[in-house]
Each structure stands twice: as structure tokens, then as C-alpha cells.
Amino acid sequence: MSLNRRGKSQVDEENPYWMSFSDIMSVLLIIFILASVVLIVQLIEIREQLEEQQQEFTEEIQMLRQAEEVRRTILHEAAEELKRRGIQVSVSENDTVLSIPNDILGFETAEFDLGPQYQKTATQIGNVLSDVILRENRVEYIDTVFVEGHTDNRPYQGMMGKGNWGLSAFRAISLWQHWLDVLPEGRRLDSLINQDGHPIFSVSGYAESRSVTEFQDTEEELRANRRIDIRFTIRRPTMEDYREVQDTFVGGSQ
User: Fold this and answer.
1) How far apart are CA 41 and CA 47, in angstroms?
2) Is the dihedral of CA 173, 122, 142, 193 positive or negative?
3) Which of 26, 38, 61, 73 is 20 to 30 Å from 182 by CA-CA measure?
4) Helix (H, G, I), strand (E, B) or coil at 84
5) Neighbouring-strand partners of residue 146
């Protein structure tokens, strides 16, 4: 018995670092397990963040598609209602613009005032626009509606030197001011606000810079370019939204 104890003691004395190495290995194993757990938790958090960002991005895309559908519906409903009232307007091929020919508003050459005989038609257009925009909270999807004046390409030296630019802008302003004067409370277009708290409607003039015909050689071609366009833009995800999603995916994949 004493010999065995002595022999065991000799082995321990010959390997004085054996227990310390075992302890180190145990500690390293524990550290490895803890690090693995932390890594797994971090990977789970990253995956959850990616899934959340992907869900937000998907919702933004769905919102954009819905906004495009709302815009298309507004334009076509407005055109159909005006047609029913005997007022012929057109919708652009990409469903973004309601175009009002000059014949309907009767702006004479080099004139920008809305004639009395055309004011009833102008009022109906304003009322119809108000109706179709206010239905089913559609205004929530709209960013801006531009009332755009356009002229043909014949040179014009009036408007205190502003020429066709001034003429196109003042024609759009005349229509807008008429709507402000005649539309009743609850239908007023200037009361419509977008999600950023800004007025939806805006007025601009483009002179002859956005022609709708390749040439302007005939009276018909000239007449086609004298018009008022009502252009609808919808709310879209901002560049910051896209960058945030991109940064998340790029960062998560590194």
C-alpha cells in the first residue's frame, strides 16, 4: 500500500504542471462555448434585423404600387366623369397626367385670362378633381399635383419680356386662381396637404419646352401643344430609406 502511494506521489512530482494544463484547457473550453453562444446570439439578432428591414422594404414597395394604382384611378375616374359632363380631356400613356386642351379653356393668342364663357367648364374640372382626390383618403398617397401651363413654339415677345414662359405660367395661374375663387369649403384644392405637411397643389409654366408633337407645322399640331396639364406625383421611398436597407444588407453580409 505504501509503495503504491509512493509511486503515485512520484508520478505527480515528475509532472508538476499536469493539473495546471488541464485547468487551462477547461477554461479555454468554457471560453469557446461562451464565445460560440455570443456569436449565435449576434447572428440571430442580425438575421432578425435583416428580416425586419426586408419587411419594411417590402412594405415600401407595396405602398409604392398602391400609390401608383391610386394615381391611375384618380386620373381615369376624373377623365370619365368629365367626359360624362361633355368635357373631353385625356390621360397620358403612363397614367401620370390629365391633359386639358386649350379649346376647353379658350385662352386666345397671347392671352392668359380665363374668359367668362369658359369659367363654368373650369369650375367643373376643379370640382371633379377635388371629388376624386378626396375619395377613400387617396390624398395620403399623393406628393404633389402640378398645374402646368404649356404653349406652342411660336415666338412671343410679350409678358414684359418673359415671352412664352410667362404666358404659360400665367395661364396656369389663371386656372388656379379661378379654382380658389369658386370652389366651396370642403372642396378647396389649396387645403390639401401631403404627408410632409406641404400643400399638394403647385403651379408652373413650361412654355414650349415640353411639346406633345414631334413637329409644330400645322394648326392642329400648334393647338395640341397649347394646353394645361395636371401632373400627379406620388409619395415614394426616399434615398435615405433605400440606403438604410442597402447598408443593413451589406453590413449583415460582411
Assistant:
1) 10
2) positive
3) 73
4) helix
5) 202, 231
Phi-psi region of 205 (alpha: psi -120 to 50; beta: other; left: phi over 0): beta
In angstroms, the CA 57 to CA 64 distance is 11
Which amino acid is present at 105? L
Distance CA 95, CA 132 (A): 15
Task: List Cα–Cα distances, 65 to 72, 74, 130, 194, in angstroms.
Answer: 11, 14, 22, 18
Task: Report how far residue 17's alpha carbon sits from residue 9's, in angstroms, rounded to the nearest whole number.
Answer: 14
Residue 92: Cβ within 10 Å count: 13
| pLDDT (tens place) for every residue of the chain, 254 residues total | 444 544 444 545 555 555 576 777 777 888 888 888 888 888 888 877 777 777 776 777 788 889 999 999 999 999 999 999 999 999 999 999 999 999 899 888 888 999 999 999 999 999 999 999 999 989 999 999 999 999 999 999 888 889 999 999 999 999 999 999 999 998 999 999 999 999 999 999 999 999 999 999 999 999 899 999 999 999 876 555 555 555 555 555 45
What are the residues whose beta carbons fall under 8 Å from the beta carbon of 90, sequence distance 6 or more? 79, 98, 99, 101
- End-to-end Cα spacing for the chain: 63
- 199 pairs with which residues across the strands? 193
Q: What's the CA gap between 78 and 90, in Å, rounded?
A: 10
- Chain position carrying cell 396639364: 229
Is the alpha carbon torsion for 182, 184, 185, 186 positive or negative? negative
What's this model's pTM, rounded to 2 decimal places? 0.73
